[in-house]
Amino acid sequence: MTKLSFLDLVNVIDGETSGDAIRRVGPMAAHVEALGFHRYWIAEHHGMVGVAAAATALIIAEAGRATNHIRVGSGGIMLPNHSPFIIAEQFGTLDALFPGRVDLGLGRAPGADGRLAQALRHDQRHEAEEFPRGVVELRAHFTGEPDLGLVAVPGRGADIEMWILGSSLYGAQLAAAFGMPYAFASHFAPDLLDEALEIYRRDFKPSAWLSAPYCAAAMSAVAADTSEEAVFIASSIMQNFVALRTGRPGKLPRPVENYLERLPMNVAATLSQALQCSAFGTVEEVARSIRQFIKRTGVDEVIVHSPAYDFDARKRSVALIAEAFASLEVDA
Question: What is the CA radius of gyration of the chain?
Answer without folding.
Answer: 19
